[in-house]
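Reminder: ligand-aware prediction takes two inputs, not one.
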Amino acid sequence: MTRHILVATDGSDTAQKAVTLAAELAAKFDVPLTVGHVLQYGRRADEMARMAEVEHIVDAVKGNANADFAFLNRSGGGLINTGTGPSQQTMRAISLIGEEIVKRGAQHARDLGAKTVDTRVVMDDPADGILDMAEEAGADMIVVGHRGLGRVRSLLAGSVAQKVNHNAECTVVIAR
Ligand SMILES: Nc1ncnc2c1ncn2[C@@H]1O[C@H](COP(=O)(O)OP(=O)(O)O)[C@@H](O)[C@H]1O
Ligand SMILES: [Mg+2]
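Here is what comes back for the chain with magnesium ion:
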């Protein structure tokens, strides 16, 4: 019997489908849902820009004076985390975007009838972070999307989805 569902979102459209499915299951089974996101300070700048574009996430958070969103204007596939690493202000911007993503995911889940919804944001390797969040929440089902924000297209699922599916001890559902 399912007791607790964790859904992981990177803000992509496919992750949104995962949130929809997880919310429907949580509502139907009447179990708590955790919406989780893993921050990556070393994420590729172009992926971050796509994440932030989703439903104008940046517009919602960019008023924050302590955060620096300049990395979003960098084109190409460079890493945010170069050389000395990202500044405090850049990390703050990435955190704000992550918080906004789970907040919106949780609201979407509540709109679909999920009653008990909480959010978690951690910093880690994405798949490891998802597995740890699931364990800490006591989740016995993890829902992820088939694809995410990555631009590498293959017939196979994205690498995060594959790693979670491969390493999880609980049921993994991959939404398409
Ligand atoms: N940083 C992240 N935080 C939370 N969930 C994530 C993260 N990255 C990926 N995911 C989850 O894994 C799914 C598949 O993404 P991924 O394997 O990264 O594919 P892609 O290679 O297309 O980006 C996403 O839909 C989302 O559910
Ligand atoms: Mg990805």
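Residues 10, 148-150, 158, 160 surround magnesium ion (ligand 2) (CB under 6 Å). The radius of gyration is 16 Å. We will return to this case in the review session.
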